[in-house]
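Kindly inspect this one:
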Amino acid sequence: MGKASRGKLERSRDKAGQWTAAGAARAAHRLREQTQRSLMGNPWVQMTLASNINNVITELQGVLLHSDLADMAEKPEGLEWDAALSMTLGKQGLRPPWPRAAGEAAAWQVREIQKLLRQAEVLVISPAAHAAVMAAAATLEPADVSTLDRDQDILVPTGLVVLPEPVVVVNRTGSLSDVKAFGWQFITQHLILPTAQYPGVQVTTFMDRDGPVQPTGWRQAVAQAHASGRPLPPLMPDGMYGMRGDACLAEESTETLADLSERHRQLQTALTQASQWRSEPVPETGEWGGGRVDDPYDDFVSRYMFAFWRLIAQGVTAASPSRSTSGVRTTAGGEDRSLPRDPEVRVIRLAAPSPRPSDPAGETKRVYHHRWPVRMHKVRQWYPSLQEHRLIWRGPYIKGPADAPLMMGEKAYLVDS
């Protein structure tokens, strides 16, 4: 939870270059190395993260002081503050006792990010696969992400995925962020309501220091950091999130999931009201071709990552080894087939759909002329070895021909072209 968002005005993205796997892999490798060097002992990064943490925890405590938690009989003094720390730092994997100073928490986050960058398998995602993830993420409800089973759904336990272009996100305060990369690693979450430990995933978002969102204040901060001899990293840590990974809601009913999603929205609405003192108007000019993602409930990151992991696990995308072309599937829309030379980088592409084993041979099939995201849904899966049905979740996934336009409601987004 929480983002160190910049209130930056947008400038047009560079449309001159065309995405290639080899170029993207080289750029991702270079970004990781440069970010690692710039993070070490960088006071500007720690100061930015500390400010973010302080805002998030203070506002969350204020909301909890006006919630049912405040009405609990015989509750320990300071429970709201501890609950706010648990819902932020504890979810991110920090073991209690939690630090009272935001600077200490920020220093811990920097150490976690450094560990992530050292150990992560680096991935780059093609524009087509990224479009599919964005479409699938848009179909998810907040409670859906708590059906995540990290051992089944996440094939790479520690990873850094670099996007083909930044995603401009409108945050709860109206400020803009341009997300360029996501990093994740397995953790143990520490919560106090109730007191428990859960398997989880720590997700870090990275802004593009030189991305499409560049107001005067940000450019001045970049210049000042550079002049001090401690330049900001090209992948600037933006926010850290904790996602529970034990499929805790996988067996819940659709009605229960809907109720939990609504409660999530209510909490986030209250947090938006608590953060009004630092809100700012959303710029109306300079909108880039890819549009913006409105994130009033602060759940875009978890929805994107959940969709990303599930699409990989379900075979909708294919991760190709960088040194071999075996098993690589490309789309029919002319994506670059070159592979990166860096053995540490994998390329995530859309996989060509394969026929279902249940399709009768020779049966006339319906021909689709577009693709669309299918929402998560429960099905009763028959297990012959157990001789019983079990409820399982399917989706999100993309249905339709790989070379067809991707449909989202009344809009169609052409990819692979």
